[in-house]
Amino acid sequence: MNSNKRHKKVALSGNGDCRVVFCPDCGTLEINLGASTIRTNSESLNILSSVLNHAKVRLAQMQDAAPANGNIQQMRLGRIH
Ligand SMILES: [Zn+2]
């Protein structure tokens, strides 16, 4: 497990505290979220990307479905314990 070789990381994308960094030398992808770093690979990045997109769509659907007077809050209150 010697890694004396210099790894030149490239920032692929970034916005605020969120960044995706790629290392062409070993093919490692890093997702930086504030103080947290998730090491991953391109396959996982694709999965994460589609899961996040799906979550966004579902969240928008739920928010659209919720009446302005807060039906979702009532449902949540009824489900506590
Ligand atoms: Zn590397």
Account of the protein in words:
The structure is a single chain. This protein has 81 residues and is α+β, with helices and mostly antiparallel strands. Helices cover 41% and strands 28% of the residues. It is built from 2 helices and 4 strands; from the N terminus they run ββββαα. A hairpin with a 4-residue loop joins strand 2 (18-23) and strand 3 (28-33). The longest helix is centred in the middle third of the chain and has 24 residues, at 42-65. The mean pLDDT is 85. Bound molecules: zinc ion (ZN).
Order of helices and strands: EEEEHH
Q: Which geometry do the CA atoms define?
A: elongated
> What composes the largest sheet?
4 strands, antiparallel
Oligomer: single chain
Q: How many separate domains make up the residues?
A: 2
**Category from helices, strands and their pairing:** alpha+beta
Low-pLDDT windows of residues = none
Radius of gyration: 19 Å
Span between termini: 49 Å
Number of strands: 4
Helical residue percent? 40-55%
Q: What ions, cofactors and ligands are bound?
A: zinc ion
Residue fraction in strands: 25-35%
Nearest-integer average pLDDT: 85
- How many DSSP helices? 2
